[in-house]
Design a protein that fits this description.
Largest sheet: none
Distance between the termini: 42 Å
CATH class: Mainly Alpha
Structural class: mainly alpha
CATH architecture: Up-down Bundle
Radius of gyration: 15 Å
Oligomer: single chain
Low-confidence stretches: none
Number of domains: 1
Strand content: under 5%
Mean pLDDT: 80
Length: 146
């Protein structure tokens, strides 16, 4: 069970990071009223992807006997890493906004990579899930995708 506690902590951190990503992209979609509808839809699609990630991570936490993350408690090394790199999405300048979102995407990928490297005891199914989510994040970040 001690190992499960560590794994639950790591997954909880990823949930918190995705919750921040959801808020960030939804704010970005609402902040810029002059966004092209395609850009706004892309922001909503990205936040929807993170909602799906959160649901999948919650399922694994429940399978491990943990409780879902329902509040924003600052804990865990991965979440601390994310907070140190966290950006402000509320800028009015569209170029600054996109730069902030880009930085946020790099940060969330780094947090996922940290989770994978710092938790060698992830069960295979959880490791595959986290790797799959990271791959989706990396593909979104490729030039020409967005």
């Amino acid at each position: 069970m001690k190992n499960n506690t560590r794994i639950i902590g790591e997954l909880s951190d990823l949930i918190r990071i995705n919750n921040d990503r959801i808020v960030g992209y939804e704010k970005a979609a609402h902040e810029e009223v002059e966004h092209d509808p395609l850009v706004r839809n892309a922001f909503y699609r990205i936040s929807s992807d993170s909602r799906s990630f959160v649901n999948d991570l919650h399922s694994e936490i429940l399978r491990l006997g943990g409780s879902p993350v329902t509040h924003k408690t600052v804990s865990g090394k991965i979440y601390q890493f994310w907070l140190d790199r966290k950006v402000d999405y509320s800028g009015a300048d569209p170029v600054a906004l996109l730069a902030a979102l880009e930085y946020g995407e790099e940060s969330i990928q780094a947090a996922y990579e940290l989770a994978l490297s710092s938790e060698p005891d992830f069960p295979k199914n959880i490791r595959r899930l986290v790797e799959k989510q990271l791959l989706i994040l990396q593909r979104l970040h490729e030039p020409g995708v967005f």
